[in-house]
Amino acid sequence: MKTETPNIQVDSTDSTNLPPTTMFDLLANDHRRYTLHYLSQKVGAISLGDLAEQIAIWEDTPTYEEYERILTGLHHQHLPKLVDAGIIHYDMDSESVEILETADHLLAHLELVAPIDIR
């Protein structure tokens, strides 16, 4: 099945097929872990702005400048990486993000670090 995001096309495959190095790379960054944790707690798509705001709150830096920095990093770096792995769907036009069922296996690994990451 093809998942299409503007300018990005990926094959949505079961995340159990992700090589361990890819899974660990996806989970190596705080913002990607925060993104997956937040999305796993929501039903349906959420706005990119809500995601960036929540990450800023978790990092204890809820300033406008930090929000903008997080928003930019998500848009240009972290969300495309998760899209390429077939873990999320990111609609650039509506700026909405949704976790895919293919993330279930990856979320099991995320649960190991979530208590440390999320205050």
Can you put this structure into words, describing what you see?
The chain has 119 residues and is α+β, with helices and mostly antiparallel strands. Helix content is 55%, strand content 15%. It has helices spanning 20-27, 30-40, 48-58, 64-84, 104-117; strands at 2-5, 8-11, 46-47, 88-91, 96-99. A hairpin with a 2-residue loop joins strand 1 (2-5) and strand 2 (8-11).
Main attributes?
119 residues, alpha+beta, 3-stranded antiparallel sheet, two-stranded antiparallel ribbon, 5 helices, 5 strands
Give the strand content.
15-25%
Give the integer mean of the pLDDT values: 86
* Distance between the amino and carboxyl termini: 37 Å
The residue fraction in helices comes out at 40-55%
Order of helices and strands: EEHHEHHEEH
Q: What spatial order of strands do you see in the largest sheet?
A: 3-5-4
Biggest β-sheet, characterized?
3 strands, antiparallel
Which shape, going by the Cα principal axes? Answer: globular
Whole-angstrom Rg: 13 Å
Q: How many extended strands?
A: 5
Q: Count up the helices.
A: 5
Helical/strand content category: alpha+beta
| Uncertain stretches | 1-13
